[in-house]
Design goal:
Elements (H helix, E strand, L loop, with lengths): L2 H33 L3 H4 L14 H9 L2 H32 L5 H10 L5 H14 L6 H25 L3 H9 L4 H30 L2 H6 L8 H6 L9 H36 L1
Helix pairs in contact: 1-12, 3-12, 4-7, 4-9, 5-7, 7-9, 8-9, 9-12
C-alpha cells in the first residue's frame, strides 16, 4: 500500500474528529464570545460572530448587580451535600447487594433500574406535599433530600457493579484477620473502589449542579434558588439579557471543568473498569 493510500484514512478520521469537536464545543465557544461582546454588538445585523471590541463588563455586572454569586454558592452546597449523602447511603447498600444473598435481591435490583424510567415530572406531584408537610419547601435541605432520593437508586446499581468486580476473597481475608464488615469496607475495599466512587460522585454532582425542574418547583425565592433557576431569571417575557446569561453560563461551567480536571484519571479508570465488567 502506498503512502498516499495509507494517509487517506487518517485524513477522514481527523476530519470526523474535528467535525465532532466543532459540533460539541461550538455552543460553548459561541457562549464565550457572546459573553465578551459589548451591548451594541449583541443585536447587530447581520450577526457579528467574533467580538470586535471584547469586554468583561458583563461579568462585572453579573457579579455586582445580580444575586448570581448567591445562586452559585447554593448550587455548590446542594451538589456537595448530595454527593456526600448519596454515597453514605449507596455504598453500604451496594456492598450488601453485592456480598450477601437474601430473598428478593433480584427484585430489588430490578426496582433500582426500573425507577429510572419514570419521568421526573411525575415525582413532583408526590414530592411537593411531602416537602410541604416537612416544612422543607424553599430550602436547600429540601433540594438535597429530593436529589438524594432521585440519584441513590442508580448510584447503588452503579456501585454494585464495581463491588462485583472485586474478588470476594479480598474481604473474606479481612474478616479472617478480625475485621468487621464495616472495617473491611472502609479500610480494605474502599481504596480499591476509589475509581467507582469517583464515577458515581461525578454523576451525582453533575445531576445536582444542572437540575432544573425540582429546583424550579420546590423553591420560590432567592434564598434557596440554584444556578439553573438564576440563569433562567435572565430570560424575560420581552427581553433576554444575553450578555448576563452567557457570562453566567461560562462561570457556571468552570466548577464542572475543574472537577473533571481533579478526578480525570480516576474517572477514566472507573469507566474503563465498568466497561470491562459490562
Amino acid at each position: 500500500m502506498s503512502r498516499r493510500r495509507r494517509f487517506r484514512p487518517r485524513v477522514w478520521l481527523w476530519a470526523m474528529v474535528g467535525g465532532w469537536l466543532g459540533f460539541a464545543l461550538g455552543p460553548y465557544v459561541w457562549m464565550l464570545f457572546t459573553s465578551i461582546k459589548p451591548t451594541r454588538e449583541l443585536y447587530r445585523f447581520p450577526v457579528q460572530y467574533f467580538p470586535h471590541h471584547p469586554t468583561l463588563r458583563a461579568y462585572g455586572l453579573l457579579l455586582r448587580t445580580t444575586p448570581f454569586p448567591e445562586f452559585m454558592a447554593h448550587s455548590l452546597v446542594v451538589a456537595a451535600s448530595t454527593v456526600l449523602a448519596t454515597l453514605l447511603l449507596a455504598l453500604p447498600a451496594a456492598f450488601s447487594l453485592s456480598r450477601h444473598r437474601f430473598r428478593g435481591k433480584k427484585a430489588i435490583l430490578s426496582i433500582l433500574v426500573s425507577v429510572q424510567f419514570f419521568p421526573s415530572v411525575l415525582l413532583v406531584l408526590s414530592l411537593f406535599p411531602i416537602l410541604r408537610a416537612l416544612d422543607l419547601l424553599n430550602t436547600l435541605v429540601g433540594l438535597v433530600v429530593v436529589y438524594t432520593a432521585f440519584v441513590t437508586p442508580f448510584s447503588v446499581w452503579l456501585l454494585k457493579g464495581f463491588f462485583d468486580g472485586i474478588p470476594t476473597e479480598v474481604d473474606e481475608a479481612a474478616l479472617v484477620d478480625g475485621c468487621s464488615e464495616v472495617r473491611a469496607l472502609r479500610h480494605v475495599l474502599m481504596p480499591i473502589l476509589v475509581p467507582g466512587v469517583v464515577a458515581a460522585a461525578t454523576y451525582i454532582f453533575i445531576f445536582s449542579w444542572n437540575e432544573f425542574l425540582f429546583a424550579l418547583t420546590f423553591t420560590s425565592s432567592n434564598q434557596a434558588r440554584t444556578l439553573p433557576i438564576g440563569l433562567d431569571s435572565f430570560i424575560g417575557n420581552f427581553l433576554i439579557r444575553w450578555n448576563l446569561l452567557t457570562a453566567g453560563g461560562v462561570i457556571s461551567a468552570v466548577p464542572i471543568f475543574l472537577f473533571f480536571l481533579l478526578v480525570q484519571r480516576r474517572l477514566i479508570s472507573g469507566l474503563a473498569a465498568g466497561a470491562v465488567k459490562g
